[in-house]
Amino acid sequence: MKKILVWILVLISIAAIFVRYSNNIAEVIFGIKQKSGISIQSSPNEAIVYLDEVAVGKTPYEDKDLGKKEYLIKLESEGASWQARVKLESGTVTIINRDLAREEASSAGEILSLEKGRGITVVSNPSDSEVEIDGKAYGKTPISINLAAGDHTLTITHKNYLNRSIRANLHEGFNLTVSVDLALSEADLTSISAPVISQTPEVVVKQTPTGFLRVRDKASLSGKEIGRVNVGEKLVLLEETEGWDRVRLSDGSEGFVSSAYVEKKTP
Q1: So what's the pLDDT on residue 2?
Q2: Per-residue DSSP letter, 222
Q3: Tell me: the pLDDT tens digits for 153-177?
Q4: What is the strand order of the sheet 244-248 is part of?
């Protein structure tokens, strides 16, 4: 009877260990590797998807037959691109949503990934963003929140950035990590003080002994001659130094002329 009881306890222990480490045991004993998955959405659609520099398809894209590892994921569409290193966990699907834009500051999106644990962890770019879940404020990123499993709506906000609203499903026994990038909002032009616009100062070439004025590459007589301007010609004044003026010529090139042979015109 005691032997039977001992064997029952042993079997229970083995079963508990198998349940706890079933993935690792299956991999070690049977060579079975539990797969990972990824689901990618983008705006605009049909962005080219690269995994570790290899083009694998276009958005919307999904692959649930990937190994557990860190991938370099890249999206490209009409001159806009985004990339990041994303670690996939066994038996879970990582979700990526991206709004692509040519300017990085206008790009936004989120990565949702699961790992063993509980609750929700929110990180953001920029940091110190306000986190609201199901209408309740929880604080600023980065933040970990002990939350019940189920569907939740996250709203991430930051001054001068566009709000980001995310629907997510939290599974029992898992921690959901939400990594968010916010896009800069358009500047409120009515609140920006505009400088007074004035006419660009000019200089006019005066009479010279040679009938023209040399333009040099530096403010010195030893400077290389890079051009010549005629008497009466107008030049854009960029900078005044002792004995020399830095000017822009009609062809867009810049150089230095002797201030003794030019006259500054008042706008």
Answers
A1: 59
A2: T
A3: 999 999 988 888 898 888 888 888 8
A4: 225-230, 212-216, 254-258, 244-248, 234-241, 202-205, 262-265
Q: Which residue has the tokens 């008497």?
A: 231
Q: Which residue has the higher pLDDT, 253 or 1?
A: 253
Which domains, and CATH codes, for the chain?
33-181 (no CATH), 202-265 (2.30.30.40)
Q: What is the pLDDT of residues 221-265, one digit of tens each?
A: 888 999 999 999 988 888 888 899 988 887 778 899 999 999 987
Only one residue has tokens 């070439």, namely 205
CB 92 within 8 Å of CB 72: no
- In order of 141, 171, 194, 260, the CA distances from 243 in angstroms are 57, 76, 34, 7
Indicate the residue type of 181. D
The model's confidence at residue 26, banded by pLDDT at 50, 70 and 90, is very low
Q: What are 145's two structure tokens? A: 């929140």
Could you tell me if 134 and 147 are in contact, meaning their C-beta atoms sit under 8 angstroms apart?
no
What span, in angstroms and rounded, lies between the C-alpha atoms of 185 and 183? 6
Within its chain, how far is the Cα of 197 from the centroid?
A: 34
| Cα distance from N-terminal residue to C-terminal residue, the chain | 110
